[in-house]
Write a structure and sequence with these properties.
The protein is of the alpha+beta class and 237 residues long. The chain is built from two helices and 16 strands. The protein has a six-stranded mixed sheet with strand order 2-11-10-5-6-7, with no helix packed on it. Strands 12-13-14-15-16 form a five-stranded antiparallel sheet, with no helix packed on it. A three-stranded antiparallel sheet has the order 3-9-8, with no helix packed on it. The protein starts with a helix and ends in a 16-residue tail after the last helix.
């Protein structure tokens, strides 16, 4: 009975120590936190930025290291593509040779990189790891990169023929959908030029300078230019 009591006493004595160790473990795990975008979409030939930020409880020193790795789809093979320790060391071999550049600032907690001239073969998983001794325990976030071709389309695919007078010239487009975020330059009846920003599905247009919806009088200046589904000028209200 005495031995059992002694054993129980030792067990009780270990509990406070275990609690301290657990507390220290939690503190250590949270002392360096890393964040990265879970999904990034890019387009062939257009520079892509892979964002990675970190927060450390320790001051930044020359011992801080950053490592980016890449894993192709359906593969367990990983490839080192970037290393940082006081200086930047992008990979000089492999798929990403001469295409990785530093886009971060360690003193601002930024460990981002950029990929130049991306191709469809760059699709895959990217991992960002940061160590700032004594902060070395951390999560390793991953980013899934999807590279696609920009869709080719004509203005006619987004604007019915009846609404293409006056002639509209595409200036730029933003967003993944071909007809989303289109920006046009329209020729006014007065031969003056203005910018329109149009969005789907109804192609409601806004003047870029005013950032307000076009009123009935304003629409009349653009002859047949109306939101999709609206009656053509001269064909009813």
């Amino acid at each position: 009975m005495q031995q059992s009591g002694a054993g129980g006493g030792r067990g009780c004595a270990l509990l406070p120590l275990l609690g301290v160790l657990l507390f220290q473990g939690v503190y250590t795990a949270l002392s360096l936190e890393i964040k990265a975008d879970a999904h990034v979409r890019g387009y062939v030939g257009e520079k892509i930025k892979l964002k990675c930020t970190f927060r450390s409880t320790s001051s930044i020193t020359d011992k801080l290291t950053i490592d980016w790795t890449y894993r192709p789809p359906s593969s367990s093979r990983t490839e080192s593509i970037f290393h940082y320790q006081s200086f930047q060391y992008p990979t000089t071999a492999g798929t990403f040779r001469d295409r990785i550049s530093w886009a971060g600032d360690v003193y601002r907690g930024d460990a981002s990189i950029s990929i130049s001239n991306p191709t469809l073969k760059d699709n895959g998983t990217f991992s960002c790891a940061v160590k700032n001794p004594p902060d070395v325990h951390h999560n390793i976030p991953v980013t899934e990169l999807t590279v696609t071709e920009r869709a080719d389309f004509s203005l006619g695919e987004c604007v019915p023929d009846a609404f293409q007078d006056p002639t509209l010239r595409e200036l730029s487009r933003r967003g993944d959908s071909p007809c989303s975020g289109l920006e046009y330059e329209a020729l006014l009846a007065t031969s003056e030029r203005t910018h329109l920003v149009c969005s789907e599905p109804d192609l409601l247009c806004r003047q870029k300078s005013l950032q307000s919806d076009l009123g009935t009088a304003d629409v009349a200046q653009f002859s047949a230019w109306l939101p999709l589904g609206a009656p053509h000028l001269g064909q009813g209200n």
